[in-house]
Amino acid sequence: MHRYEFELSLSPTRYVDYYRGKVRHVVVQCTTGQNVRFPASLLRRFVSPEGIIGKFALTCDERNKCIGLERIP
Q: How far is Cα 62 from Cα 10, in angstroms, rounded to an integer?
């Protein structure tokens, strides 16, 4: 399994295109400097009135299929 950690800060206005499906994927730069792409739908459960802000960890299987996304302290 692979684990990718990154920070994300999306305002509510900016996330609207992701939420509506206009933009289907998010590309983030991990703490290792590596770029990772994943479905924007994974972020829906983290939306708050402030948008999406925080540190996250994306877990993928050996074929790089997304298994889960979690907020980390």
A: 29
- Domains of the chain (ranges; CATH) run 2-72 (2.40.50)
Kind plus residue range of the DSSP H or E element containing 18: helix 12-19
HEC string for 22-54: CCCEEEEECCCCCEEEEEHHHHHHHCECCEEEE
pLDDT (tens digit per residue) in 9-52: 998 888 887 777 788 899 999 999 999 999 988 998 998 999 99
Q: CA 45, CA 2: separation in Å to the nearest integer? A: 22
